[in-house]
Write a structure and sequence with these properties.
Strand 7, helix 8 and strand 8 form a beta-alpha-beta unit. The chain has a 7-stranded parallel sheet with strand order 8-7-6-9-10-11-12, with helices on both faces. A 5-stranded parallel sheet has the order 2-1-3-4-5. By secondary structure, the chain is an alpha/beta fold.
């Protein structure tokens, strides 16, 4: 594939630009461009690299008369119009493994924080109160964790939470029951999962089949007081249904890193964020220095491979173990 000029449209780690430049590409970094600006400029590039900020719309894709590749330095491609890309014979790339460990670790941190009321207790103490009895929690040992989505992140979450003594069950239409059993997850249908789960964590893409997957009906089928975590994509959990479940006690707590709208302005979302049983973080799943370097290097490597160039790479202290890129 004839690739020479690359536009980096979002703030991807500098390792991406460095690697592409070392391998003979002309790279321009132009962040926070409007759709109109991108429509005007995209014709000059063979490839564009984005993260989450830039939406690669049909209008931009049609204007990219020389565009051959759209790369996202991260998991998922929901900010890219893949249908328009396919119609215009443009290849869409992403880096699903690069942030797996970071997203997994945040998930595990949120599960343990929910169990022990870490966030509200810390805020209470900072405010000058000593509410020791108010924030009594419970152990995770012996509790059941339901993992919806048993890919890279779901598997890593299972392995870590098993070390806390949690029983892990899960659902994934692609991962077989035999494969799930290899990492000690009992695979079962969703209808069987809901009544068993003390905690639910979701690790699926946002697609029509998963939109509002966790809704008011699901909360009614769960144990009263079930706790839920979402470090995947906003929209997998129906926010209206979640708020109602928090208010009537069907949901005993939620930890959310992602929302239907980001940054959130919807009144329902804002009410959820302010709810005393909710831990809310601003989409930090991949926000570690290690993950940012991994996804930056991986997307650059994919573009270099497509161009047919022999990869030239100067090792830097930022990449300690390159084998993690092939997770």
């Amino acid at each position: 594939m004839d690739l020479k000029r690359v536009l980096v449209a979002d703030a991807v780690d500098a390792e991406c630009t460095k690697l592409l430049t070392e391998n003979g590409f002309v790279v321009d970094c132009k962040y926070k461009q409007t759709e109109e600006e991108l429509v005007k400029n995209i014709k000059d590039y063979d490839a564009i690299i984005v993260r989450s900020d830039t939406k690669v719309t049909e209008k931009i894709i049609k204007a990219g008369t020389n565009l051959k590749v759209i790369g996202r330095a991260g998991a998922g491609v929901d900010n890219i119009d893949t249908k328009a890309a396919t119609t215009n014979k443009i290849l869409v790339l992403n880096t699903p493994g690069g942030n797996a460990i970071s997203a997994c670790e945040l998930t595990c941190s949120l599960i343990t924080s929910l169990a022990r009321n870490v966030v509200p207790a810390a805020a209470s103490l900072k405010a000058g109160r000593w509410d020791r009895k108010l924030y009594s929690g419970h152990e995770l040992y012996g509790k059941t964790l339901a993992i919806i989505g048993l890919g890279r992140i779901g598997k890593e979450v299972a392995l870590r939470m098993q070390s806390w003594g949690m029983k892990t069950i899960g659902f994934d239409p692609i991962v077989s029951a035999e494969e799930a059993k290899k990492f000690n997850v009992e695979s079962m249908d969703l209808e069987k999962i809901w009544p068993l789960a003390d905690y639910i964590t979701v690790h699926t893409p946002l697609i029509p089949q998963t939109k509002n997957m966790i809704n008011g009906k699901v909360f009614s089928a769960c144990k009263k007081g079930v706790r839920i975590v979402n470090v995947a994509r906003g929209g997998i959990i129906c926010e209206k249904g979640l708020l109602a479940a928090l208010q009537d006690g069907r949901c005993g707590g939620a930890a959310l890193d992602v929302f239907e709208q980001e940054p959130p302005t919807n009144p329902i979302t804002l009410e959820i964020i302010q709810h005393p049983k909710v831990i809310a973080t601003p989409h930090l799943g991949a926000s570690t220095s290690e993950a940012q370097i991994r996804v930056a290097v991986e997307i650059a490597e994919q573009i270099i491979a497509l161009s047919g160039r022999n990869l030239s790479y100067t090792e830097t202290p930022g990449i300690i173990n390159r084998s993690v890129l092939s997770m």
